[in-house]
Design a protein that fits this description.
Elements (H helix, E strand, L loop, with lengths): L1 E6 L7 H13 L4 E7 L11 H6 L1 H10 L5 H12 L6 E9 L5 H8 L6 E5 L20 H17 L5 E2 L17 H13 L3 E5 L1 H5 L10 H9 L4 E4 L12 H8 L2
Parallel strand pairs: 1-2, 2-3, 3-4, 4-5, 5-6, 6-7
The structure holds zinc ion (ZN) (2 copies).
Length: 259
């Protein structure tokens, strides 16, 4: 079993910290962990967020508490260090990158040939709106339009050629908002582009862990069916932000896929 999406952001860049993720993985019978950082943790990516910070005072304050705390070189040094040590599980390192269409060139410039094992592209902002922070931020917004823009952006992300996978492809559902129209056509287009670009979909238990009342576990069933039909690879993940959450519901996610 794979846990394909684990954030190391709450600890120092040390082997000791990495070992805590490994221990939990062994306990959860996980064979491979894919460790990553949000790209905004690195000062090189900070300029990508000017417009989302300008859009919301809340996001601006959140961003300045969390962003730009490392340099990419520090992370690459940790990766090198870990690669020189034997662990009882396979470890891969990558980045979870917020996708903004206007920053495709910027993103590929910063990440190309850096030695990452994988790059995961995720939509966390829809037209500058940080949709996954608080349900009350959705008040008064046009849910149909947000869904439409979310999936249009997801399809552009897949077409961009920058990423190996797409993070939590239907996380937009996390607070229980639903569009008035069917998403089938978007699912089909997304699956088609993922397949064409040889990308995987991140089958993620983190959304349901955060929002158990409003979000079902992993991806929507119709979306899974359409991804399978298009031969898109699916990689299970916890989206853990601490060692304790490594492997969270990975077994259940695997069972769902094989149903
Ligand atoms: Zn994410
Ligand atoms: Zn994540």
């Amino acid at each position: 079993m794979i846990d394909g999406h684990i954030h190391i952001e709450r600890g120092p860049y040390t082997l000791d910290w990495i070992n805590q993720f490994v221990s939990k993985a062994v306990e959860m019978e996980i064979d491979e962990i894919r460790l990553l950082e949000h790209c905004y943790r690195f000062e090189e990516f900070v300029p990508m967020y000017d417009s989302v910070c300008a859009y919301s005072e809340y996001v601006d304050a959140w961003f300045h508490r969390n962003a730009g705390v490392h340099k990419l070189a520090d992370y690459l040094e940790l990766i090198e260090q870990v690669r020189n040590v034997q662990f009882p599980v396979e470890i891969r390192f990558g980045l979870e990158i917020c996708y903004f269409q206007e920053f495709e060139g910027f993103t590929s410039e910063l990440t190309r040939d850096k030695g990452f094992d994988f790059l995961l592209g995720s939509i966390h902002f829809v037209d500058d709106f940080a949709f996954d922070h608080k349900a009350e931020h959705w008040a008064g917004l046009d849910v149909d339009k947000i869904y439409r823009r979310y999936f249009e952006d997801s399809i552009s992300l897949a077409k961009s050629g920058i990423f190996d996978g797409i993070g939590h492809p239907d996380a937009i559902k996390l607070f229980g908002h639903k569009p008035s129209y069917s998403l089938s056509d978007y699912y089909e287009s997304l699956a088609n582009e993922l397949s064409k670009n040889n990308m995987y979909a991140d089958q993620n238990s983190g959304v349901a862990r955060r929002c158990p009342k409003t979000a079902s576990l992993g991806m929507n069933e119709e979306l899974i069916r359409i991804l399978k039909k298009n031969h898109v690879k699916i990689i299970t993940s916890s989206d853990a932000h601490c060692p304790e959450d490594v492997g969270y519901k990975i077994k259940e996610l695997n069972n769902r896929y094989h149903q």
